[in-house]
Amino acid sequence: MRQDTAEACSTSAGSPPIEMTSVDLISDESLEEFASKVKEKIPDPWINTTCNNTEIRMELWDSNYSIPKYILHVDSGLQFSLHVYNWLLPDIHPLYTTHRRRMDSARVVDFLEAIRDGKYAICEGLRQDEHVQTIAKDPDDASHTSFSNSDVIRHSIPNKIEMDSNFGVLVVFRCVDCELLLGRNGDEEHVICDPCKKLQKNILVQQNRKKRSSSAPAKAKAPLTACSSEKLRATVVATRLECKQLEDKIKNLQNKIEKSAVSISEPLEKDLMTIMSGQNLDSMPHMKFFWEQQIHLLKTKKMGRRYHPQMIRFALSIHCKSPSAYRELRDSGALILPSERVLRDYKNYFRPGAGIIKENIEELKEQASKFTGIQKYVAVVMDEMKIQENLVFDKTSGELIGFIDLGDPLTTYANVDEDTPIASHALAFLVRGLCTNLKHVAAYYFTGNVTSFQLLPLFWKVVGVLETTVKLWVIAAVNDGASPNRKFFALHSKLGGTLPDGLVYKTPNLFFLARMIYFFADVPHLIKTARNCLYNSGSGSCSRYMWNDGHYLLFRHIADLFHHDQQYALHQLPKLTLDHVLLTGYSKMKVS
Ligand SMILES: [Zn+2]
């Protein structure tokens, strides 16, 4: 495209065909006429170097360079082209368009004078820096058949050779579309045409972008061969930093292990590894859950541990079976388990209303199957007891954990819900053989404060099961004679068996009407109640002063009797001991 020699230029390879219709033919003079006129009028320092039938060539030289500053060609059709330091003015340049690219003798002098007098400035091209120099291309670069407008072209202008100077060159970097000649516009420091300016801007933007990306570390999978040295350096720096952080982390973890690790025996370790490597854990959801919890607990701080309810239930069941085994398991550090203090908080929580358990009844039935005749008679003992601290009831099944094996823990521990009221008592229905040693708890009910109305259906339900399923004949109901229990007896007054003073002592058996169920108050209970009443009469809590037939009934009488008897070596009341007299809180009385 570009020619850097005057000879090549003369063919005007780059000039477009002239649109004859649009050309204003000012004159129809021939090249010969034009040449003769120009020869006469050509202004200094323009010189006419070639003049023949096909072209006229005029040059203007600058003393500094060894190529002409301007070359004006006019061909046989009077078309013209202009070179600036051998760089052909682009076809769209205004110098061409205003003259419609035709020259004639009338205008040529003005044209030449205007250029000579410096009405136009030469574009100085892109600012020169290392980057521009490296990306610049030579106009005769064989690897490029054509240039795009994003290319930077090296425009070399050889210096004039002096006697004792060496070859030198002025290099200007231009855009392919450089306009070269610009109308003078004030006193700009750096004369640059619009296409060159635009290219310079683009290069700067690209450079910045590249700089940014090259200073960022390479991505993990980026090929290192494609990375610039800057990028490689950044990558190494980032990798080193990462290494350092990871090493610190490892160190921390090792310190932690050394500090708070618990050593375990080799077989245990092997077992743990096998289990924790996750083999077949999916087929054992309970175990999987357990180990997941263990791993989770390992990660949490000792003070902030929260145990899943299922873990607590599991811990409770172990603890109830053997607290010492539990302690051993926990203190050995093999497992992370709740402390005993935590377990205590969870005891006695269960849902009231657990009832007759099928397995339990089956067992009773088996025992009862051996009985014949008189052996089949039983009494049902109802007793309400405060739940012992070491017994834990499973709230869904009502099973007493610690006595009953858990069997499948998944079922035992399934369904955890909050909001369960706390029951304070367990109401037990005990089956006692009258002529056998049978002692069996037929059912548990978990209650807060049981009333006679609640007691009635429960009792009859138990009787029903005993009579129909187990085939035992219930003929007595025994309880401690507490107020709800007495009321429970009284509820049967309509069924019969009432003493003249209104005391209900028996009821027909609803499941076998020919037989009666007799009501008893438990004797030890009665004595205990009587003793407590007496104890509080005039002493103790002083809640009453009992009397009968005008005489006081006071506990002090018994105490005095005991103390009086103690004065003699031979006791008249050998069975009465200090324990009988010194009930809890009695010591105050003794001091006085
Ligand atoms: Zn330019």
Can you tag this structure with a few keywords?
6 domains; 6-stranded mixed sheet; 20 helices; 5-stranded antiparallel sheet; single chain; 19 strands; rod-shaped; 592 residues; alpha+beta
Helix and strand arrangement:
Layout: H1 6-9, H2 31-41, E1 47-51, E2 55-60, E3 70-75, E4 80-84, E5 87-88, H3 94-98, H4 105-116, E6 120-122, H5 130-135, E7 152-158, E8 169-175, E9 181-183, H6 194-215, H7 229-260, H8 266-276, H9 285-299, H10 309-321, H11 323-331, H12 340-346, H13 358-368, E10 377-386, E11 392-393, E12 400-401, H14 409-413, E13 425-433, E14 439-447, H15 452-470, E15 473-479, H16 483-490, E16 506-509, E17 512-521, H17 523-535, E18 546-548, E19 551-553, H18 555-566, H19 578-581, H20 587-591
Parallel strand pairs: 10-15, 15-17
Antiparallel strand pairs: 1-2, 2-3, 3-4, 4-5, 6-9, 7-8, 10-13, 11-12, 13-14, 16-17, 18-19
Helix pairs in contact: 10-11, 15-16
The protein binds zinc ion.
Residues 123, 125, 174-175, 178-179, 192-193, 196 line the site of zinc ion.
Spans of at least 5 consecutive residues whose pLDDT stays below 50 are 1-24, 348-353, 395-421, 585-592
What Rg do the Cα atoms give? 59 Å
Distance between termini? Answer: 133 Å
State the helical fraction.
Answer: 25-40%
| Overall structural domain count | 6
Strand order of the largest sheet: 14-13-10-15-17-16
Amount of beta strand: 15-25%
- Note the main sheet: 6 strands, mixed
Please report the number of helical segments.
20
Global outline = rod-shaped
Count the beta strands. 19
Bound molecules: zinc ion
